[in-house]
Each structure stands twice: as structure tokens, then as C-alpha cells.
Design brief:
Layout: H1 3-13, H2 24-41, H3 45-50, H4 58-65, E1 73-74, E2 77-78, H5 82-95, H6 97-117, H7 120-131, E3 137-140, E4 156-160, E5 163-174, E6 181-188, E7 191-198, E8 204-208, E9 220-230, H8 243-277, E10 279-280, E11 283-284, H9 289-318, H10 323-347, H11 358-371, H12 376-388
Parallel strand pairs: 3-6
Antiparallel strand pairs: 1-2, 4-5, 5-9, 6-7, 8-9, 10-11
Cofactor: FAD
Domain Acyl-CoA dehydrogenase/oxidase C-terminal: 240-387
Family: Belongs to the acyl-CoA dehydrogenase family.
Length: 394
């Protein structure tokens, strides 16, 4: 099937004309990232996924593409709109969730923490290199025994003269084995504080978590901090309490609202192309009622999810987005994307379990996306508390 054919089918799937709601600049950003994915990711992702390989060199390519810290202003950051960042996340995840996650960990978690809460010296020191992809950052919040409840973290930083001594562990920390710095959140006598920890610090250990059946073209690790000595200048001066890490989590959750739509769209398009080319009982399987119902159901959810993402993005650009609205998008779009990837796989039949076909890869990746940055259960309880006024976390 030619590129023109694919574009024509994609146009048909925009039943509500959502493309017309985007500005010319937003469409240009989307198309630029889509072209990058088509050229650099699609030809390689099946092999990267199969071999559990993350192409570290893509970091600088992402920097040149302008998607690292995309929504941040100054310090070499692109300074694009929330909607443009969302569209970029969608196109990247149409290639692979793990590669979109790299952009999220780097930009929405590590860079956002430094940009919002760091000192001027910290911003100047780290952000330009991170925006260019020359410096890789990670974000250490989750612990082996503290996932959904970060307030119970055990990692601790104590004062020792003018220095800090960091002890503890973190788990499921993206990019840590290849990063030059990790933003680590730790308990102190003065509450939870954030620290920029160079990964070559004595006492810092990153253990890659493998083998994984999800997010295989990505890297996650368990971190151990054995009395790491940090100068006073390592602390993020503006962040105190959980407000610091939660502000970064909300940035990442926002990107997920868009990103998972890319995985859903790519799964749908793979199923549509296959159904038009696969002949059974003397006609393409796209001509059978059950197949058409599956395709229609997928498009309905993708279109509704796109409207939700776009509305959320417009609110974010206007400065009026509430965190509970982010929970709506993360919960709904991730949940529906998993259903779409699984249903798309059924249209491919037995061939759908081969790694060359994207729906089963997306379905596996989305299990991780569904879990990180707040599980379904956490976002359900956030919304439940909003609706009833009663917290159900404890």
C-alpha cells in the first residue's frame, strides 16, 4: 500500500474533521514529527523491540527534532505549545511507546523539575544540554515499596555540614542506566525535597530491570544510593513536599493523554490495511460485517479520545487546566488504547502475534503506560474524590 493510499485511509478515519481544528503551525509540527517516525523509527522498531535495544544515539536526533523539553521556554528549550507537544507525543508513540517515554522522562519529568524548581545556576548548567539531547536525565520517585503512595518513600537525605548524604533505593526509573543525572526525591527533616544527582557519584548504582515483556525498546532500572555525598547546590531550592514531583507527573500524564492515541491509531491502521489486503471466502475481510464493526468501534474511540486530548491541550495552553482533568484523559485514553490494540490484533488473526505487526507490540507497551504515572485505580480514586468530596485512598 502506497503512502498516498495510507494518507487517504487516514483522512477517512478523521470522521469528525478534527484535523481542521488544528492551526497550520500545529499541523506542521505534527507532520514533521510524523516524518521523523516514518524515517527513523518504523523501519527499525520491530528489531529494537525483539532485541530489547534502546538506540541511545536517538537522543541527539530528538534534540535536533526539537521534542526534548518541547513545552519549556528559555535555556535552549523549544518553547512550543501544549497542543504541539501533545501532537508530537502522539506521533512518537505511533512508532513506539518506549521512545515516546524517553521524550517524556527527559522533558516532562527531569527537565520540567529543573526548569520549574531549580536555581538559575542549575537551569543554566543542565537544561541547554538536555534540550539538545547531549545530556540525558532521569527522574527518581517510585521505590520498591512505594509506587502509588510516594509519601511513604524511604529514600532519605540528611545534612552533614553543608552537604547532604543520600541513602535509599528507587525502582522503575526510566533512562537511569544511560543518564548523566537523576532528579531524586527524598525525605528530609524538612519534608520531601528534590536533588540533582550526577550518576557518576560514588555510591550511585543503576541495575537494569530485565527481561521485560513490555517497553522492550526502552530502559528502566532499580537505583541504589549508598551514602552519596551531595553539595548543598544539588538541592532544587523551589520544591518542598510532594508538590514538586507531582507537578512533573502531571506534565508527563498530559503527554500520555496524547501519546496513547498514537499507539491506538497505528494499531487501527495496521488492522485496516491488513483487512483490505487479506482475502477470505473470496473477498477482503474488510467486507465482512464483524470486521467493519471492529474498525468502526476503534475509530469512534480514537476520535473521542482526540477531542478529549485537544480540549485538554487548549485548557493547558490557556493556563486553566485542573489536575483532575488530566486524570480524566490519562484514565480514559489509556484504557481505550489498550482495547483498540487488542482488538486490532484479532483482525490480523494468527499473523497478528508476529513481531513485525505493531498491534501486539503496542498492546504489550500499553500495559506499562497504563501502570506508570498513576494506575487506573489511582486516577479512578482521584476522580471519585472529586465527585464525592470523600478521599478513598486510606
Amino acid at each position: 500500500m502506497t503512502v498516498a493510499d495510507i494518507d487517504e485511509l487516514r483522512g477517512r478515519s478523521d470522521v469528525l474533521g478534527i484535523d481542521a481544528l488544528l492551526s497550520a503551525e500545529e499541523r506542521a509540527t505534527r507532520d514533521r514529527v510524523r516524518a521523523f517516525v516514518d524515517e527513523h523509527i518504523r523501519p527499525n522498531i520491530a528489531d529494537w523491540f525483539a532485541s530489547a535495544h534502546f538506540p541511545v544515539e536517538i537522543s541527539r536526533e530528538f534534540g535536533r527534532l526539537g521534542v526534548l523539553g518541547m513545552h519549556l521556554k528559555g535555556y535552549g528549550c523549544p518553547g512550543r505549545s501544549a497542543v504541539e507537544y501533545g501532537l508530537a507525543a502522539l506521533e512518537l508513540e505511533a512508532g513506539d511507546s518506549g521512545l515516546r517515554t524517553f521524550v517524556s522522562v527527559q522533558g516532562s519529568l527531569a527537565m520540567s523539575s529543573i526548569h520549574r524548581w531549580g536555581s538559575e545556576e542549575q537551569k543554566q548548567q543542565w537544561l541547554p544540554g538536555m534540550a539538545a539531547g547531549e545530556i540525558i536525565g532521569s527522574f527518581g520517585l517510585t521505590e520498591p515499596t512505594a509506587g502509588s503512595d510516594p509519601s511513604s518513600m524511604k529514600t532519605y537525605a540528611r545534612r552533614d555540614g553543608d552537604d547532604w548524604i543520600l541513602t535509599g533505593a528507587k525502582r522503575w526509573i526510566g533512562l537511569a542506566p544511560i543518564a548523566q543525572l537523576t532528579v531524586v526525591w527524598a525525605q528530609t527533616d524538612d519534608g520531601i525535597r528534590g536533588f540533582i544527582v550526577p550518576t557518576d557519584s560514588p555510591g550511585y548504582e543503576a541495575i537494569t530491570l530485565e527481561p521485560k515483556l513490555s517497553m522492550r525498546a526502552s530502559i528502566q532500572a532499580e537505583l541504589h544510593f549508598d551514602d552519596i555525598r551531595l553539595p548543598a547546590s544539588a538541592m532544587l531550592p523551589g520544591a518542598k513536599g510532594l508538590r514538586g514531583p507531582f507537578s512533573a507527573l502531571n506534565e508527563a500524564r498530559y503527554g500520555i493523554i496524547w501519546g496513547v492515541l498514537g499507539a491506538a491509531r497505528d494499531s487501527y491502521e495496521a488492522a485496516l490495511r491488513y483487512s483490505l489486503e487479506r482475502t477470505q471466502f473470496d473477498k477482503p475481510i474488510a467486507g465482512f460485517q464483524l470486521t467493519q464493526q471492529k474498525l468502526v468501534d476503534m475509530v469512534l474511540e480514537i476520535q473521542k479520545g482526540a477531542l478529549l486530548a485537544l480540549h485538554t491541550g487548549r485548557l493547558k495552553d490557556a493556563g486553566t487546566l485542573d489536575p483532575v482533568q488530566i486524570s480524566v484523559g490519562k484514565l480514559n485514553n489509556t484504557r481505550e488504547a489498550i482495547k483498540i490494540a487488542r482488538e486490532a490484533r484479532t483482525i490480523l488473526g494468527g499473523n497478528g502475534v508476529l513481531i513485525e505487526h505493531s498491534p501486539i507490540r503496542h498492546a504489550a507497551n500499553l500495559e506499562s503506560v497504563r501502570t506508570y504515572e498513576g494506575t487506573d485505580e489511582v486516577h479512578t480514586l482521584i476522580l471519585g474524590q472529586h465527585l464525592t468530596g470523600i478521599g478513598a485512598f486510606r
